[in-house]
Amino acid sequence: MILAAIHRGAPISRTELSHQSRLTKQAVTRIVDRLLDEGLVMEARRRHGLRGQPAIELEIDPEGVFSVGANIDRDHLTIVAVDAAGTVRGRIHHERRFLLPDDFACLMAEALSSFRRRRVIEETRLAGIGLAIPDWLGEVKVVGFPSEYRQWNGYDVRGALEAISDHAVFIDNDANAAALGEIEYGLGTEIGSFFYILANACLGGSLVIDGVRHKGASGIGGEIGWLPVVFDDGPFQGSTQPLGEMFSLFILFDYLERNGIKATTPADLLNLNDAGRSCVSRWLRKISIKLAQAIVDIGMVVDPESVLIGGRFPVRLIDELLVYVHEEISRLGARAPSLHRAAGSEDAAALGAAAIPLAHRLGLPSAEPGQRFRNPISNRQSQIPVTVA
Question: Which 8-state DSSP code applies to residue 20?
Answer without folding.
Answer: H
